[in-house]
Amino acid sequence: MRRILLFVATNIAVLALLTVICYVFGVDRLAAVQGIGGLGPLLAFAAVFGFGGAFISLAMSKSIAKWTTGAQVIAQPRDADERWLFDIVRHHAEQAGIGMPEIAIYDGPEMNAFATGASRNHALVAVSTGLLRGMNRDEVDAVLGHEITHVANGDMVTMTLLQGVLNTFVIFLARVVGRVVDGAIGGNNRGGGLGYFAIVMILQLVFGIIASLIVMAFSRAREFRADAGGAKLAGRERMIAALQRLQVQHGESTLPKAMAAFGISDKTAGGLQRLWMSHPPLEERIARLRSMPV
Asked: What pLDDT shows up at residue 195?
């Protein structure tokens, strides 16, 4: 529940900031003067902010990941364990047809790992100290295969494009609908009043939550694909064993919210909270792997 509240609070802050920017720079008033048939400038503005923010986040994703998790990149293996880690990542990267990613270790008690980066050939794969302590080498092998598959599938870029499209329509539709609502309740329907400003704030929050549910649904779908890729690279039984090991893990991930969707596990509860899960339940992922043809 704490992560869900943080998620909603972040959306509120971002959407509020965008609304203030639109108000200060007069974008709403410009679109209102031009009417419904002349919303090109508003749509362009929405696209610039919608995609711009998403792609800036993607470009900075590796730096943000290292900073927020305290991950230490291994420039050169210092011992046999790090050499093994390097060799496994290199092998999976070659099999998947991508460039060798950076490898990092971050301090975290939970068994987790994540991959991020702006492109398939310039990615970062990081594992927690808890994962290295809690899993055997076969299971770590499978987890690394899972993360390499995320990179090979271009999941980070696809998520960014999806978020950009959704951001654009949230910004745009909130203003179009906001103007209609403002006029219906007695406003001037010109997009410049404080009443309109408040309506847009509320609509952006509502549309933003709906957009977030779409992003989470896509995220869950890509986890099944990454599991299948991990099974292909490291072996199905190893991938199943790794997921079974994660089932015994207690407590929420310590990954920052911005990186949680890129980890291998999400411990959010079921029920309605499932809609906010970035990962499917582990039992569903294991069942899907068991149903795969050998």
From this structure: 78
Q: Which of 150, 126, 111, 145 is nearest to 63 (CA)?
A: 126
Of residues 8 and 83, the one with the higher pLDDT is 83
From CA 34, how far away is CA 25, in angstroms rounded? 16
Q: Does residue 110 fall inside a structural domain? A: yes
Q: Check: CB of residue 233 under 8 Å from CB of residue 151.
A: no
Q: Is the pLDDT score of 35 beyond 50?
A: no
Are residues 134 and 178 both part of a single domain? no
CA 223 to chain centre: 11
Structural domain including 91 reads 61-156+218-290
CB 109 within 8 A of CB 267: no
Question: What's phi and psi for 116, nearest 5 deg?
Answer: -155, 175
Q: Are residues 68 and 135 in the same domain?
A: yes
* Residue 283: active-site member: no
H/E stretch holding 210: helix 194-234
Domain count of the chain?
Answer: 2
The residue annotated as part of the active site, out of 147, 252, 283, 284, is: 147
Other beta carbons within 10 Å of 161: 15
